[in-house]
Amino acid sequence: MKKITQSLFLFTILSCTSNAAVNDFCVADLKGPDSPSGYQCKPPNTVTVDDFVFSGLVAGNTTNTFNAALTSAFVTDFPGLNGLGVSAARLDIAKGGSIPMHTHPAATELLIVVEGQITAGFMTPSAVYSKTLKAGDVMVFPQGQLHFQVNSGNGKATAFLAFSSANPGAQLLDLLLFGNSLPSELIAQTTFLDVEQVKKLKARFGGRGIDYS
Amino acid sequence: MKKITQSLFLFTILSCTSNAAVNDFCVADLKGPDSPSGYQCKPPNTVTVDDFVFSGLVAGNTTNTFNAALTSAFVTDFPGLNGLGVSAARLDIAKGGSIPMHTHPAATELLIVVEGQITAGFMTPSAVYSKTLKAGDVMVFPQGQLHFQVNSGNGKATAFLAFSSANPGAQLLDLLLFGNSLPSELIAQTTFLDVEQVKKLKARFGGRGIDYS
Amino acid sequence: MKKITQSLFLFTILSCTSNAAVNDFCVADLKGPDSPSGYQCKPPNTVTVDDFVFSGLVAGNTTNTFNAALTSAFVTDFPGLNGLGVSAARLDIAKGGSIPMHTHPAATELLIVVEGQITAGFMTPSAVYSKTLKAGDVMVFPQGQLHFQVNSGNGKATAFLAFSSANPGAQLLDLLLFGNSLPSELIAQTTFLDVEQVKKLKARFGGRGIDYS
Amino acid sequence: MKKITQSLFLFTILSCTSNAAVNDFCVADLKGPDSPSGYQCKPPNTVTVDDFVFSGLVAGNTTNTFNAALTSAFVTDFPGLNGLGVSAARLDIAKGGSIPMHTHPAATELLIVVEGQITAGFMTPSAVYSKTLKAGDVMVFPQGQLHFQVNSGNGKATAFLAFSSANPGAQLLDLLLFGNSLPSELIAQTTFLDVEQVKKLKARFGGRGIDYS
Amino acid sequence: MKKITQSLFLFTILSCTSNAAVNDFCVADLKGPDSPSGYQCKPPNTVTVDDFVFSGLVAGNTTNTFNAALTSAFVTDFPGLNGLGVSAARLDIAKGGSIPMHTHPAATELLIVVEGQITAGFMTPSAVYSKTLKAGDVMVFPQGQLHFQVNSGNGKATAFLAFSSANPGAQLLDLLLFGNSLPSELIAQTTFLDVEQVKKLKARFGGRGIDYS
Amino acid sequence: MKKITQSLFLFTILSCTSNAAVNDFCVADLKGPDSPSGYQCKPPNTVTVDDFVFSGLVAGNTTNTFNAALTSAFVTDFPGLNGLGVSAARLDIAKGGSIPMHTHPAATELLIVVEGQITAGFMTPSAVYSKTLKAGDVMVFPQGQLHFQVNSGNGKATAFLAFSSANPGAQLLDLLLFGNSLPSELIAQTTFLDVEQVKKLKARFGGRGIDYS
């Protein structure tokens, strides 16, 4: 009897809580459209713990031209991150490898070194902030700053990355300049690189030199 | 004649104003999906004054186990709040009743006492901020803090609540710990409560003790 | 013995919690400067429950030209609101009185009617959203919209207001147009009011007509 | 061979970059619904440079009752602005013309004078901030403040405007008060204007006086 | 000669860049006051790479009552995080240990398991989201949700944490309820725990039961 | 008599409005420290119209190595912008000149062409968004994207810029890579440029190649 009254009361509370559930988290419906604040929310009753768990933040394959691999746990991999302003990745760099100059246009990066030695840094027009990091060191790269990570040790290096966005972009400078159809002369004019250097890197990064009008 | 020129001019202004209307407010289309920033906007030409008005923020029924009632005016009750970062509720607590320990995970609460006497407070690990409030007193509970409200007077107590979110969650601690399927042993391990105490409250709040693996 | 170990452990947790205290709330040091995000924080160890409680949200004196009074509980009255994006006020309107046309440039307003009858509304260039409200009705006025509240009943009217800012501005249209030194001719030119009307209201609201160059 | 390995690597990077593309910008799908954070994003593979370019921020027709024209480049004109918090407009004011008192409820305006002389200002209840501006002068009108721009020179005046919103509203005070169906008596009561003045301006701005209940 | 002209030009660019430096990052002056947006910025010319690097995110001492340790890299440890909305920590849990029920009132937590087995979860009033995680698994705990982490394996467990705040609070439920001066009767009334249970845990967590008025 | 009552009433309203003044705008005290949300506010009673007006957004001197000049109206030039999220600049590019590749790490840029012909664009790893613009064209460069502007016409080119920040950074790629003390070998390793090319540009942009450890 009393039990029934209570259940009714709990139902009242739960009804305002189920609104809350929509609001306290918003698991991405990745089949729907994105928006400036993120993806639409899945209906709360379809959310499961697996929306909040990502498996596979493990060593990537570093047998490539950079001897490095980036494994991501972003909202498109992991819908529970939607709207929460944080994501993660794992960085593996073989001996002699590096993550070349790149930016995250809309996210700050935190680098947590767990194994090996990484020399990392970012630059402003007036200064370089660069340091050689070991296991247990953490470095922050503020949003939009051009930065790099080099394995400067004698073995492999491993790090975890955290980002201040559920869906950080990663833009390699070489791909921005040399990986697309920007004309070689225009690149040379706006970077002061020699045209020969530009063409050499376009050949490496797959860019096609075309004219524009 | 001049009237026509003017109308054309006004039309020009209105055309940029109708864009504004989409932006200056965004009434929720509650039949559509939610997103991290709120619901989609209803077409501006379908918006009426009733989207901006909620009726029924009146005394709730307090004949329940807590001798208290929370009546909400959140975005799901009141689509004009969408995207505006504010909502309201009414709190009625009968003599001897209380709103037990709870949190609003993503909203600050403002408590405006209008009748009776309420002892309210929130805690940090190092301090308690608790006070006995009378009509005309206002207390703020910062976002995410565990807090409570007790009718400490000789009659009923009434208050209005404002929240810094259009859709604040309300999570009663007893429902979080004892109202769901979290195993009793795990609750005991992570709260240091005695298992008997946990089982007693699970029986009261409807939780079913199951094993996990 | 065990107790000591535990205390050390608690100290560790508390040390990270005391950081949290700085962050989970930031009580305004009203003697210090303001900033775009609010006032500087008082040192956490000087914060008391009275920083989170405001007393005196009671009936204001309505014996004035508008037969109305606004009593505020904003951050400058109530330092615990600092940085939390919400504040409150009480509105008392005697029979026949009103709060004339006004805006809150950077805050949404929620009006909770508790006694009497209030006709309230806001306008866009293409529509009026106006309604007559009774006790238990709530109306929202989106940020920056020109709005009004009139006591349209036979007795006094009382309401509580919540704002989506810790420090909302309140700008009465008559004071903006007629309460300052804006030249009458310029007001007339930019409002299409007759100069005589402008001068009549400047006399009422204390504005001094001066020339500009 | 090595080329293939590299392509695979680039593909890996690009896959996380294509997520980024969704996030680093979100071009509006103007056929879809709006939300508090803006429109849904077009699929990245359908985005072209024309989404990021608006053509036609040129002189508007000033042969109207205000001798002025506002030409806008807002998100509804220019989908690449979606979610980026900035937009532009061009202002042309013929000799003797003006942009009457108006507000942008949710945007700050920056006025860049390029030709002629403009007297512009905004008011608070306690002060007027007004100045006569020439080419090369820039003035800022903080969000939600009532402001005006008058051509106070001997020829035409031209300015560019920037707004802190992709979709700023523009609300002319005369249209808010006199352009809609707000009853004349209510306008008079809430502005202290004479009813005759109200009716005269309703006739000019097209408002229809009706009763309310 | 040409060099000089160029230097002058670079100086012009640098002057606007040095403004940028203030804005692109704002390294905390931890000796100054905090604010709702974070600490004041150190003068850019006093910033060094060490402001962006934290050393010591290593295994904490788990010989305590919880057999667990949390090592933090928050803004108060690491001033370069100021204003960037992200921070990190390391979690070490010995066999049989756990991080008991706790909340971060204003931050989302990301848990990256690097060694061992951790059973973690959070609850809403209507659901439990709990899972047993292994190395390479990542779980997200949305802002303000009550959650726990238990070492459910046969050896020690290690994880890195990322937070969506530069200064996340960490509030252990037992310290909130039992570690301070909240009266036992009030705790019992607002949690439905038996008074004996409350007193037993107050004795363990150091709370002093006092009366209030 | 009635006048006095009214003045008292106006005083009441003004008192809450003067709070608003602190909040509706916050003019920078440029002698004080900056914070993540901007500078401290000047006392409202010391604010004048000149805080809201910047003079001198005029043609800059283009006789330099880039044949271009950027004239800024940022918060450090113009304290009224503080906290308002918008700023402006003027761009002058002589025939044959350009603004080389650069980023604004924390601001979106809007380019309004007023004279001449400018070829502008930004790149992602997978696409180039580039177009030749004429007077009346507006182009948006989303936050943090690498972009360029080239005078591709037969005469000088002039444009106004608006930014979604009161204090946008401007980082020229050549200064980031070649203008500071980053070692040539490290630049070569992280950009794939030839070391000779790096040294040639360091000589031009003033960078000093040093070793690091």
What is the structure about, briefly put?
Chain A has 213 residues and is α+β, with helices and mostly antiparallel strands. Chain A is built from four helices and eleven strands; from the N terminus they run αβββββββββββααα.
How would you describe what is shown here?
Chains A, B, C, D, E, F: One of its GO terms (molecular function) is manganese ion binding. Chains A, B, C, D, E, F: Residues 1-20 form the signal peptide. Chains A, B, C, D, E, F: Mn(2+) binds at residues 102, 104, 109, 147. Chains A, B, C, D, E, F: It is found in: Secreted, Extracellular space, Apoplast. The structure is a homohexamer of 213-residue chains. Chain A is built from four helices and eleven strands; from the N terminus they run αβββββββββββααα. By secondary structure, chain A is an alpha+beta fold. Chain A folds into two domains: 38-169, Jelly Rolls (Sandwich), CATH 2.60.120; 174-205, no CATH class. Chain A has a five-stranded antiparallel β-sheet with strand order 2-3-10-5-8, with no helix packed on it. In chain A, α3 packs across α4 (195-205). The longest helix of chain A is centred in the first third of the chain and has 23 residues, at 2-24. Chains in contact: A-B, A-D, A-E, A-F, B-C, B-D, B-E, C-D, C-E, C-F, D-F, E-F. Chains A and E meet through α1, β1, β5, β6 and β7 of A and α1, β1, β5, β6 and β7 of E. β1 (53-55) of chain A pairs antiparallel with β8 of chain E, so a sheet runs across the interface.
List strands and helices in order, with pairings.
The structure is a homohexamer of 213-residue chains.
Chain A: H1 2-24, E1 53-55, E2 68-73, E3 87-93, E4 98-103, E5 109-115, E6 118-124, E7 127-133, E8 137-141, E9 147-151, E10 157-163, E11 171-172, H2 173-178, H3 184-191, H4 195-205
Antiparallel strand pairs in A: 2-3, 3-10, 4-9, 4-11, 5-8, 5-10, 6-7, 6-9
